[in-house]
Design brief:
Helix content: 25-40%
Strand order of the largest sheet: 7-6-5-2-1-8-19
Number of domains: 2
GO molecular function, one term: oxidoreductase activity
Mean pLDDT: 90
Enzyme class: oxidoreductase
Distance between the termini: 81 Å
EC number: 1.6.5.-
CATH topology of the largest domain: FAD/NAD(P)-binding domain
CATH architecture of the largest domain: 3-Layer(bba) Sandwich
Low-confidence stretches: none
InterPro entries: FAD/NAD-bd_sf, FAD/NAD-binding_dom, NDH-2
Radius of gyration: 24 Å
Strand content: 15-25%
Number of strands: 23
Oligomer: single chain
CATH superfamily of the largest domain: FAD/NAD(P)-binding domain
CATH class of the largest domain: Alpha Beta
Protein name: NAD(P)/FAD-dependent oxidoreductase
């Protein structure tokens, strides 16, 4: 019996999940006959819909509704929870580690493949800022979104109970670094939530909270255009948010954020959203990369110069065939990733059957961004919207894009209920240390010599 043709999909994010989903539909007969096998290697057993992370952090959406379980959606694929460490495409092999290999101490396994789909996404792009690795919080995963929400409410609890004004001021100062989508939307949603939460504290008023947005360039939200970017700054500053343009974070050691303009901000919260970079696995392959570390691809989403290797999304440098500008590449954003996954799956299936491939082309439609509840900016097909219409468009667009009808219905239901009832403001900080209480209860009693004297 001949071995099935194995399609290895690296990454279970938006591109990886949708590529595998379309492949299992298009290759249904081959999968049933056992002539094709689809293997998805991903660090997490779910796909995270990242545009909803700010609302998950603010409590508008339950965190479990912004993730899609891969085993349920990709029921005809083989799912391996682990990470690809390196790829030798010349030999068609990938070295990976899984949860089992760590337990076994075997040092990883080697997986052979016939077709390779690289969609590992991106990771946070950090800089050598003193104290950043020790104190800053990222905002790319659902775990970070939940942790940040718990952290903000916990800081308000600290400020409410302390008698030390320095500790109180540091607890109520929140510094966000990065003026792109992630930074602006996360800050706006959390500021909205914290302002609402302050009404339940007897000694904290909304104006006691200090929110600072630090951006190295001279504008924020460049994707929505210069005019809408300026409007977003006016909107944020109107809510008493301190927007610092052409400013960098120099240090965040000793619970103090030091900015390039000389400002020193005692703070217990630094959120880093200053861009992303390609996943490290790309550097551990023998495939061609561009100067930014992304895979060089053709308009057919095949890796340039090699056969049987494909890529899309953040990991791929795909030429923009709709642009008249030579050398222009598709922006690594969700708008392109959604559409690239469809073409990528079709081309992989076509290559297996010897059918012609098609090129990917999509003219940029514009962007939408939320600035908190009922507030937003949009620049779509040349039209500029702000305020409630832009916020409504933001929600409608992302509701249409979140995968599966199940998730669409749950998110819509939560939005409806949140409009009828008050926000939930509870912090579940103990989630980060779930065994702490049991460990305390199970600890041996103190020795007689340790007991306090009466």
């Amino acid at each position: 019996m001949t071995e099935p043709a194995r399609i290895l999909v690296v990454g279970g994010g938006y591109v990886g999940m949708y590529t595998a989903l379309r492949l299992q539909r298009q290759l249904r007969a081959e999968l049933r006959a056992g002539t094709v096998e689809i293997v998805v290697v991903t660090p997490d057993p779910y796909m995270t819909y990242q545009p909803f992370l700010p609302e998950a952090a603010a409590g508008s959406i339950s965190p479990r509704h912004v993730v899609v379980p891969l085993r349920r959606v990709l029921d005809r694929c083989r799912i391996l929870i682990g990470e690809v460490r390196s790829i030798d495409h010349a030999k068609r092999t990938a070295a990976l580690s899984t949860l089992a290999t760590e337990e076994e101490g075997s040092g990883g396994i080697e997986l052979t493949y016939d077709e390779l789909v690289l969609a590992p996404g991106s990771v946070s792009r950090t800089l050598p800022v003193p104290g950043l690795a020790d104190h800053a919080i990222g905002f790319k995963t659902v775990e970070e979104a939940i942790g940040l929400r718990n952290h903000v409410i916990e800081q308000m609890d600290i400020a409410s109970s302390t008698r030390d004004p320095a500790i109180r001021d540091a607890a109520l100062t929140f510094v966000f670094v990065g003026g792109g989508y992630a930074g602006v939307e996360a800050l706006a949603e959390l500021e909205d939530m914290a302002r609402y939460t302050a009404r339940y504290y007897h000694n904290i008023k909304p104006e006691d909270l200090r929110w600072v947005l630090v951006e190295a360039s001279d504008r924020i939200l460049p994707e929505v255009g210069e005019d809408m970017g300026r409007y977003a700054i006016r909107e944020l500053r109107g809510r008493n948010i301190d927007v610092r343009l052409e400013t960098r974070l120099e240090s965040c050691e000793d619970r103090t954020a030091v900015l390039s303009d000389g400002t020193r901000l005692p703070t217990r919260t630094v959120v880093w959203t200053a861009g992303v970079k390609p996943a490290p696995v790309l550097a551990a392959t023998d495939l061609p990369l561009n100067e930014r570390g992304r895979l060089r691809c053709t308009a057919r989403l095949a890796v340039e110069g090699v056969e049987h290797a494909w890529a899309a999304g953040d990991a791929a440098a795909v030429p923009d065939v709709t642009s008249g500008e030579p050398g222009k590449e598709c922006a690594p954003n969700a708008q392109h990733a959604v559409r690239q996954a469809k073409v990528l799956a079709e081309n992989v299936a076509a290559s297996l059957s010897g059918r012609p491939l098609r090129e990917y082309g999509h003219a940029y439609a514009g962007s939408v961004a939320s600035l908190g509840l009922h507030k937003g900016v949009a620049h779509v097909y040349g039209r500029k919207l702000k305020g409630y219409p832009a916020w409504f468009m933001h929600r409608a667009y992302h509701l249409s894009r979140v995968p599966t009808f199940n998730r669409k219905a749950r998110v819509l239901a939560e939005w409806t209920l949140s409009g009828l009832f008050k926000r939930e403001i509870v912090s579940l900080g103990s989630l980060e240390h779930p065994r702490a209480e049991f460990e305390l209860a199970a600890a041996p009693p103190p020795a007689d010599g340790d007991k306090p004297s009466s």
